[in-house]
Amino acid sequence: MKPVSLIQFLIEERRAGHINAELSLLIEVVARACKRIAVATSKGALGGVLGEAGTGNIQGEAQKKLDVISNEILLEANAWGGHLAACASEEMEDPQQIPDGYPKGQHLLLFDPLDGSSNIDVNISVGTIFSVLRCPDGVTEPKAEHFLQPGTTQLAAGYVVYGPATVLVLTFGHGTHEFTLDREVGSFILSRRNIRIPGQATEFAINMSNQRHWQPPMQRYIGELLAGKTGPRGKDFNMRWVASMVADVHRIVTRGGVFYYPLDAKIEKQGGKLRIMYEANPMAFIIEQAGGAATTGRQRIMEVQPTGLHQRVPVFLGSKEEVELATRYHLEAEGAQA
Ligand code: AHG
């Protein structure tokens, strides 16, 4: 079969009526920026890109040099094309407006420029996550409130994993598709169309060091997985934890499994670890479009009405039956308390 490039795929999606020309251009621009981020990350110590930037982001987290570089690459690439009304980044407090003198488009772009950045210095996979929304009609200078739309309104979502290969996974709400970067040619090539995540799982991803801080339903659920064949689930489960959400999600998109970042006593006040706008919503869209499920442990992630640009939520996602079971345990526990 002849290889299908990302550009060809986008043209097909336009012809199918799934996207318009402006969204197609937006995805091309983001993909091009991510190729530049891939080059920067791959230089490692030789590019002088490792280590701390000496600055903090809005969440008070120390920024790595590559967090700052990746953010700049995405901002600069998206400033002048005329496809965006504004963008918002996990690394910036407020939305970034399109500079004066450039045309504006109808779309809002949100991104986590470099997810898993604590892994950069140890040469473990990191990634970029993005989400696209429509700018409300009549809004010319979008503010945070215009971005606060539930995940169900996303027009597109994707991530790029910078691993042994650079891989882009993308959805427009018509299936989830994977593209692999051909480094010689410089193009993303379709490598899997309509990915399906198996309903059942034997592999789970969670930061086990937080176990003692979890709420009782999570203790119960993971306890049952750990009990294996002789426990109530009657089968053994394997555990994997990269601590780069992009890499953990990509494993699920590739061979099934589940990923959990539940609420725990340490992070209860902030509502969770992962950000709804930059991480949870785009990943939920990608996972649901591949036949999986994504909840906060209480409700579907994409139905949460966001109240803040940097709001955090618990994240349960992956193989449908497992996510539904873990969610049921939480809802049952709350029902029993009520
Ligand atoms: P960051 O981009 O700030 O490094 O955050 C990474 C996120 C996510 O990618 C990962 O799943 C999680 O944080 C890791 O959390 P732990 O520190 O608990 O392992």
From TrEMBL:
Residues the entry annotates as binding substrate: 115-118, 207, 273
One of the Pfam families matching this protein, by short name: FBPase
GO CC, one annotated term: cytosol
Keyword terms: Carbohydrate metabolism, Cytoplasm, Hydrolase, Magnesium, Metal-binding
Cofactor: Mg(2+)
EC number: 3.1.3.11
CDD domains from the UniProt entry: FBPase
GO biological process, one term: sucrose biosynthetic process
UniProt catalytic activity: beta-D-fructose 1,6-bisphosphate + H2O = beta-D-fructose 6-phosphate + phosphate
Enzyme class: hydrolase
Residues annotated as domain Fructose-1-6-bisphosphatase class I N-terminal: 6-192
Residues that, per the record, bind Mg(2+) 2: 112, 115, 279
Residue ranges of every copy of the Fructose-1-6-bisphosphatase class 1 C-terminal domain listed in the record: 197-329
Principal localisation: cytoplasm
Entry GO MF terms: fructose 1,6-bisphosphate 1-phosphatase activity; magnesium ion binding
Pathway: Carbohydrate biosynthesis
Quaternary structure note: Homotetramer.
Family according to the record: Belongs to the FBPase class 1 family.
Protein's recorded name: Fructose-1,6-bisphosphatase class 1
Organism of origin: Rhodanobacter sp. FW102-FHT14D07
Lineage of origin: Bacteria, Pseudomonadati, Pseudomonadota, Gammaproteobacteria, Lysobacterales
